[in-house]
Design brief:
This protein has about 375 residues and is an alpha/beta fold. The chain has two domains: about 1-115, Transcription Regulator spoIIAA (2-Layer Sandwich); about 120-379, no CATH class. It contains eleven helices and 15 strands. The strands form two sheets. A ten-stranded parallel beta sheet has the order 8-7-6-9-10-15-14-11-12-13, with helices on both faces. A five-stranded mixed beta sheet has the order 1-2-3-4-5. Helix 10 (about 335-345) crosses helix 11. The longest helix has 20 residues, at about 165-185.
Length: about 375
């Protein structure tokens, strides 16, 4: 075996019929000591490799992982790949790139994935009905707040998470382009990027890690829930404990109660005195009610000019509900937004459900820009 090094590349030539990692380790150690964060192993010169020889790669993985160095393989022919697939613990973690150019692109993707944004962002995951979410955001979010579109690029298990996949990337760029077109129409600043994961659970967890203090704005209409993939996306969001974002939605059409009742112990439903909208909020709340879930129906009644505050009344006149563990409360308030935020904090609400009222812009802006819990706006 012949080993050559150049910059961040280790080129291996000849026959590998046994574990030759000890001979390769010196070159890798020198590159790591010189500050290399990524190493590319060029296999184009390998003439023959055996299962025993694959232990060379296993040694390289172990060495690099313990030093937090990413490793990529290029020039891997079909014989090597087939042998790797037959060897447990090798193929599933072997990041293969078709060329040096693709490997370098993977390195760039890796660096972007591991970057954490500590500033607050307004995120629009490209799930459900993004155009509805954009229109909603444009109505209630201040002009200076940029829109950040995030596309879930789900990588199949046969590839490493960082492997460039042209078909998926083209679809992501197309959808992100359309979303940014909406923002231009709204005269909004925006940017788009992909977040790689294996599934939607991983996608939302990655959002928590990458944008730890940001808000999320999505839209799912009730009719969308008839599709299993949309239901899966929605559930992955509401089940993620670390997310305190926003869901813009409409009442579900589906009346099957089996699929959501897991997380919420306390739900707050805000009424506005509009019978149709209030019933829509109640219908939506029922989808989240499990045994012993506490539901507060709260009607924050706005005081008129010079009117004195009235004591809280433990009923909402004329409204009836068949939800078992509930309170019906009418409260006189000067401003709805600060009252509601304080009420959620004091009562420990896990979710608040608010009917969309176009004239109540202050409430919408407050709940979108600084959410205190998962919030569902119901049209």
């Amino acid at each position: 075996m012949i080993i050559e090094t150049e910059n961040d590349i280790i080129k291996i030539s000849g026959k590998i019929d046994k574990n030759l990692w000890p001979a390769t380790r010196a070159a890798a150690s020198m590159m790591v000591e010189n500050g290399a964060e990524n190493i590319i192993i060029d296999c184009t010169g390998i003439e023959l490799i055996t299962k025993k020889g694959l232990e060379t790669f296993a040694g390289a993985f172990d060495f690099m992982n313990r030093r937090n160095v990413r490793i990529f393989f290029v020039g891997v022919d079909e014989e090597i790949e087939n042998l790797a697939m037959e060897t447990p613990g090798i193929r599933s973690i072997m990041p293969i790139a078709e060329s040096l150019e693709v490997a370098r692109k993977s390195i760039a993707i890796d660096k972007q994935m591991n970057k954490v944004y500590k500033d607050k962002y307004l995120l629009f995951p490209m799930l459900g009905n993004p155009s509805h979410a954009i229109v909603f955001g444009d109505s209630f979010v201040k002009r200076e707040k940029a829109f950040n579109f995030v596309y879930p690029l789900l990588v199949p298990m046969k590839y490493t998470l960082y492997h460039p996949i042209k078909s998926l990337e083209d679809k992501a760029n197309s959808d992100l382009g359309r979303a940014e077109g909406f923002s231009i129409f709204c005269n909004r600043k925006s940017q788009g990027q992909t977040v790689r994961s294996r599934n939607y659970v991983g996608f939302f967890r990655r959002l928590c890690e990458k944008y730890p203090v940001s808000e999320i704005l999505m839209s799912f209409a009730g009719s969308d829930m008839e599709r299993r993939d949309n239901l899966e996306k929605f559930l992955c969001f509401v089940r993620e404990e670390a997310l305190k974002g926003i869901v813009v939605t409409e009442p579900f059409n589906k009346k099957d109660p089996f699929y959501i009742k897991e997380k919420y112990d306390k739900i707050i439903v805000t009424f506005v005195g509009d019978e149709k909208k209030d019933k829509a909020c109640e219908s939506f709340a029922k989808e989240f009610v499990k045994e012993d879930t506490v539901v507060d129906f709260v009607y924050p009644k706005m005081l008129k000019l010079n009117e004195d505050p009235q004591p809280s009344k433990n009923f909402i006149e004329g409204f009836k509900s068949d939800i078992e563990y509930k309170t019906l409360k009418t409260v006189s308030v000067r401003h709805v937004a600060p009252f509601l935020r304080d009420y959620i904090k004091r009562s420990g609400g896990d979710m608040v459900i608010i009917p969309v009222m176009e004239e109540d812009e202050d409430l919408m802006v407050t709940m979108v820009t600084d959410p205190v819990c998962t919030t569902c706006f119901v049209r």
